[in-house]
Amino acid sequence: MPNNITYITVGDMDDRRHLDPTVFRRTNRQCIVTINNLYDRNADIFQEIQSGSCSNPDETAAILQLQNEILKRIKQFVMVYHRERLARLRKIRWEKGGVLAAETRANMSEAEIDWFNDYCRNLAEFQEALDVNLMSGMEPPKALLRQVRVLEDYGEFETTDGKAMILKKGSIHYLPVNDIEILIQQHILEEIA
């Protein structure tokens, strides 16, 4: 890569120092400067080719193409990195709610904090409009449902609440306790710890 820029990959994100916003901003700035430099260089080369003042047009066209591919690759790195950070923020929102830990907030850029706050606000407005709490009921209640494995093909099965499903050998389901007792006795289902 040009100018020996250190690029942060998604795999590097598990390394704590890459969560530091100063490293993130510096690397992001370096990528943007490199993109702008390559773009300007490509524009100059293209003008040179168009004007016919190029001494070796084939070699110059190859350089232009190579620099364009480098430019695309740098953009791809930046986009993947941004997308991964936003995905992690979205996951934090669903797992921990709308309040960020001080350490997490300290390692976020201003734009990420704004995005997170907007995401929380939009989610709250959506839940309010539908009068539903999407954060509750994320896990099935253990007392009412049991995890079972199908021991032999049974075919279509309908629970008492009207949900239909196909019970195939080896498949695993969460089913209401009162619906599975008979099938367990018939050795069609077995309860999983």
Automatic annotation (TrEMBL):
Taxonomic superkingdom: Eukaryota
Keyword list, A-Z: DNA replication, Nucleus
Compartment annotation: Nucleus
PANTHER family: DNA REPLICATION COMPLEX GINS PROTEIN PSF1, PARTNER OF SLD5
InterPro entries: GINS_A (IPR021151), GINS_bundle-like_dom_sf (IPR036224), GINS_Psf1 (IPR005339), PSF1_C (IPR056783)
CDD domains assigned to the protein according to its UniProt record, in alphabetical order: GINS_A_psf1, GINS_B_Psf1
Domain DNA replication complex GINS protein PSF1 C-terminal: 147-192
Pfam assignment, any one: Sld5
Organism: Steinernema carpocapsae
Name of this protein: DNA replication complex GINS protein PSF1
Limits of the GINS subunit domain: 71-129
GO biological process terms on file: DNA strand elongation involved in mitotic DNA replication
Family of this protein: Belongs to the GINS1/PSF1 family.
Cellular component, GO annotation: GINS complex
Primary location class: nucleus
Oligomer status and interactors: Component of the GINS complex.
Known role: Required for correct functioning of the GINS complex, a complex that plays an essential role in the initiation of DNA replication, and progression of DNA replication forks. GINS complex seems to bind preferentially to single-stranded DNA.
